[in-house]
Design a protein that fits this description.
Elements (H helix, E strand, L loop, with lengths): L2 E7 L5 H11 L4 E5 L4 H5 L11 H22 L2 E5 L7 H13 L3 E4 L9 H6 L2 E3 L2 H13 L1
Parallel strand pairs: 1-2, 1-3, 3-4, 4-5
Helix pairs in contact: 1-6
Length: 146
Amino acid sequence: MQWNVYLSGEIHTDWREQIIQGCQKHDLDICFTSAVTDHDASDAAGDLLGAEEKQFWRDHKSAKVNAIRIKTQIESCDVAIIRFGDKYKQWNAAFDAGYCAALGKPYITLHDEALIHPLKEVDAQAMAWATTPEQVVELLVYTLTR
């Protein structure tokens, strides 16, 4: 059985690649999906519908265009991995976690111990909290092979 795993959150490190490669080493049958991780392309998604003079409307249109992909991928995933980095606040990742919780989709949070307090509500709904991509891989190996 192939699983669909949605990778959400921080885009400034290679955590996605680490998880994908780790799962490939274990021959796990997983299809990984993600939001657009090219920051400039994501910010400009709404420009496909015409330029906006005000930043609010540009961001608003881009968020809606990006949501087409994100909403569809979250709704069809078996589990989401939601990464919170320490450099930027990932409001979009927190929103994805809330959407998963509302849908009853299991998710795993991935973040450092320094973020335990600010993410307490997000972690409270998660099925697991990991601190490394390797731990996520082990959770997926366990879930899919035991």
